[in-house]
Amino acid sequence: MQLNHLDLPVPDTSVTKSFFVDHLGFKCVFDRDDGLTVLVDEAGFALTLSPLPSDESLIYPTGSMWVSISKKNPSSYKPSIGLSQLDLR
Question: Contact 8/50 with Cβ under 8 angstroms?
């Protein structure tokens, strides 16, 4: 199985888009006024950036403790999948 797309809710889609385009070689193929953005890399992987709902914690999957990101204290998030946390401010 090959992962070919991922939706990533982020607090600031514009700043996050700039990071992926400028530093990781992604190309923006879709950018909507409400923040929804689609980026692709050379291999065809599609990364969708969607606005993180304001003043809400985001939990993936719902009801699970796998990933929990709080906008009030994002530094408390420690990924369990080997990725480093990025501060995109």
Answer: yes
